[in-house]
Protein 1
Amino acid sequence: MSGSLCAATENKVGVVLIHGKWGNPSQFNSLAKSMSSKGYMVLTPLMPWSKVRGYDIDYSSALEIVTGTIQELRKSGSAVIVLAGHSKGANAAIAYAAYGREKIDAVIAIAPGHMPDTVRFHQSIQSSLKKAREMIDSGKGDERALFTHRNNGRYADITMTAAAYFSYYDPEGMASMPLSTSRITQRIPLVWILAGTTDVLYDKGRDYVFDKWPRHPHNKYLVLNSVHREAPDDAKEEILRWIEALPSPDIH
């Protein structure tokens, strides 16, 4: 089957919504409801960067949560898999496109966040990153310590293992969106959604990730008139139209 998703195939679309840093799945209540009303199956896993989990596993293991969620969608009949994330969740969706074990069909990056590869971000957590690297090099990577985390200009000290901390904050690791993008081999359509002109990545422009993404006719770069926290709600109509316009694989 080719062309756009139609009513007969809409219920075969599965969406994984990946929440942001220190957040939880409830941030997607409105977007998830709108997607469900279209017949999409929607799952919103609790990720390790939520407040209640406190980075209890490393980034690679976090992506395995996404793998399990995708497998659950497939077992329930989803043939088209869309990964959508907000802030740190958008970072994870991009990382999954590069490193994940399951095939995906589209990525929605809503107000992407967590940029350890950028100079200002790296400098703000440099002492903690150095501490984690030294612990790992001395064989203490599995030991817990206090490390500084950054979230959209806010900071918090969180106790976790050195290895887990380094996996999230290594400027040359999975959390680097440009590096992840350079390693994507599938032609997966991307919609890159910035909250507005005050978005932390607005000044980075299209070149930071979007222009590096594998070319696809359905790639879209969108700037909302919104703010970071409200972006998932304010983008939902655009997101639904974009999903509906995606080319559908032969799923019959």
Note: The CA atoms of residues 27 and 116 lie 24 Å apart.
Protein 2
Amino acid sequence: MRSLPSPESSPRVVNEFPHDPAAFTQGLIHHGGFLYESTGGWGSSSLRRVELETGRVLQEIKLPGHYFAEGLTLWRDRLIQLTWTSGMAFVYDLKTFERVGSFPYAGEGWGLTHDAEHLIMSDGSNTLQRLDPETYQVIERLDVFDQRAPAPLLNELEYVDGQLWANIFGQDRIARIDPLSGDVLSWLDFAGIPPHRKVSPSAVMNGIAFDADSGRIFVTGKLWPKMYELKQEPLKEPMK
């Protein structure tokens, strides 16, 4: 474990885009110039393809009303979407959004991303699970700590240049996590972004998307009217 405080910085916002203020964002990815978004809510959950520059929804399917959608990732040509308390994930064709499969899992579903080999899933605790992307079986679990304290409430996930980024539910912070050790490498503090929670107490930060081709990073939140593009700063080690 790290014995010194994890460094904290305020990322630089370099651009902003419209975002549907009715979208209860639970999962967000970037692929092929578009955003793909999982929105939650009982009776209002959806899977969407969104135009970044305008926030316009180009393609959408609704989930049955008894499912509350959560995290989202893309594995090859399949979109994989979690649900909150139903213990069920849905698998879709990337182009058509046709449902081509599903799989059960234990516990709650919160965030979802992947590295080169595995799906990585959060459940609101400080423990992440690695899943086989073909069988969807749990391969291993990774406990996340900031110094020696558990880092709970890990929510929406994104794999960014070899690091795991995680929204912390209810906070304006993102943890940058070493995917091998589970150590929090640093924190990103978003206190400087306009307080969208004035719209609703539920309008918390949630949603990270990484464009690996360009290195661009986008963040938003539930019911936020804006999507923000960040300038990624190099990771700085704490002073010794």
Note: Residues 51 and 86 are 30 Å apart (CA to CA).
Protein 3
Amino acid sequence: MGILNVTPDSFSDGGTHDDPRAAIRAGQQMRAAGADIIDIGGESTRPGATLVPPDEEMRRVLPVIAALAAQGAVISVDTRNAATMIAALDEGAGIINDVSALRHDPVAASVVAARGCPVVLMHSRGTPETMNCHAHYADLVRDVTDELAERSRAAMEAGIASSAIALDPGFGFAKVGTQNFELLRGLRRCAALGFPLLVGLSRKRFLGAAMGQPHEPAARDPASLAAGLFALGEGAAILRVHDVAGTVQAIRVREHLLI
């Protein structure tokens, strides 16, 4: 899954793709490099980020979704807002990727159920503005797994098919510092819930801190590859990444080694 942030303020690539033409070109390049899914978002959800109104979010993402979907790309829309979900699906998106696990918008679960589309439910606590204040756990891996299980149950009770659900442990969302490594080491417990796991480690701050380059997101790509390959070995099904070409190469070599 290639990350395409159509935002001025995302932590790694904010402002790079906020022009629709630049975003469309970037999406085309990701497809050519081997991305199976392009994840398009119009609201930064980095720690401390403020809410973006749905109308502004839609203004940013809809032209890009429409153009890439018309070219045959599989599109997921990274949004917490039901109105954006509806509009994005109408423009050709096929997957909803919700960092709030359908908690933010009370209508979102019914939208996903009615449309019958796949949905990614990500673990977090609070909002992007407050989530780091909630990074307190009795048992991190157990608590994250239990809370993901609760969100999957709520989704199914809302009418979403179990086969349409994927889970994301939410690295960097209400997890700080070495908590992220603890969660990565315990990934098999999340995978044991029985849903496909999407893992988003790419260029996260905790990787930069571990390698002594906390302030240069693009310099974290080698660390992102190492963490991503480890995640695949622990049960991840989808890697959400900035560096599509490098990740595809690494995965292909891994596949040859596992034959």
Note: Strands lie at 2-5, 38-41, 75-78, 95-98, 119-122, 165-168, 198-199, 238-239.
Protein 4
Amino acid sequence: MIPATVFKDKTIALFGLGGSGIATAHALMAGGARVTAFDDNPGSVARAAGEGVPTEDLRNIDWSGQEALVLSPGVPLTHPRPHWSVDLARAAGVEIIGDVELFARERRAHASEAPFVAITGTNGKSTTTALIAHILKSAGRDTQMGGNIGRAVMTLEPPAADRYHVVECSSYQIDLAPTLDPSVGILLNLSPDHLDRHGSFENYAGIKERLVAKSRLAIIGVDDPDCRHIANRLEKNGRKLQRISATSSLSDGFYLKGFDLMRAVDGVAEKLATLEGIGSLRGAHNAQNALAALATCIECGLTADDIQAGFNSFPGLAHRMEQVARRGRVLFVNDSKATNSDAAERALASFERIYWIAGGLPKEGGIETLKSFFPRIAKAYLIGEAAPAFAATIGEATAFEISGTIDKAVDHAARDAAGDPAPEAVVLFSPACASFDQFRNFEVRGDAFREAVRSLAGTEMMGSK
């Protein structure tokens, strides 16, 4: 735990008592703050009280005596309308922050030179976070990973000069961290997302930019125009910057050439690492993640050999282009995290001969944007509520069936792929949909795919699960 000593002897209101909220309350109390916590869910309030967190309805407290409102990132700050606790805090002139801001203040107060890597982007931030942490740890560095991935940031070990914190930051967390100032700030990419919570794409992009605006080194993916504009703007403002690209050569920065990761300085390029043969980092989207990790770890003092060894041993993340099994020439890939067409596009672009399992609770726009990838699809197996709409979009572009369930889809896709003459056929579960029609979350859905694959005769499972 990181005691939040920056609020020692201060009175703090806290709203949101999920896992990270309770952890933040304990961190504030350990640092000497007087905390009053609440949640709209009575069960969450009772659980927090049972863990020793002082609770009271924040509508009944004296807001004039509060130093800050610490808000859980899942609670609306601005859109579709501010939560009532936000209205009360603003009316009293009380600042509103989150747990990532607490971490940033603790680091500045006690170990301002402690290495702090913060990662954001619409897609790829979890893989990039895990990859950087894996490389640093593999190279023998004391490494803590958390934030929007895994552990709440205030449950990590405290910042120290020789301890690396690698923290994934969502737009919600950045919005609650006005003084965020990492050693290395990474912005991978931008596409419309969470607009219901931010009001517009311009607001969303502006929030993401905050993560790199005050970083000692900004690493920015320049394969989309919005990020290119941000990189140019930061450079004009004198920020130290590294550009990365998985699609174009750069005269200065890190880029992909075939399978090789290149670094160019003043037009002179050198190869630093390769992704050839690394299944967990397959596809252009993972090349972007690897380039960000390479630039970061070079900044952190690692050698190219250290970084290549980390790439080679990276197992990947569960449910994100996760290679779960092989059966002969057939590879089974679990990409359950692909809850929209933009994410599914990255998976479809990574393979040449695909038996695609897709569907679930549909998102706006469906799979219209994926039509250019239909020639790669030998057959589609459609499940969940989206199946009829997806079938209509596919039309006569490729073969499909409405399988209904994951078990049936896996069975039929495995049978069909086994007879494919291609050097490698891929049964790809990349739903392009939310999971909530049939499953509690994408993790449970991905586990169901994995178990369906495991039940097939002659399957060689991969990884630890």
Note: The first strand starts at residue 11 and ends at 15.
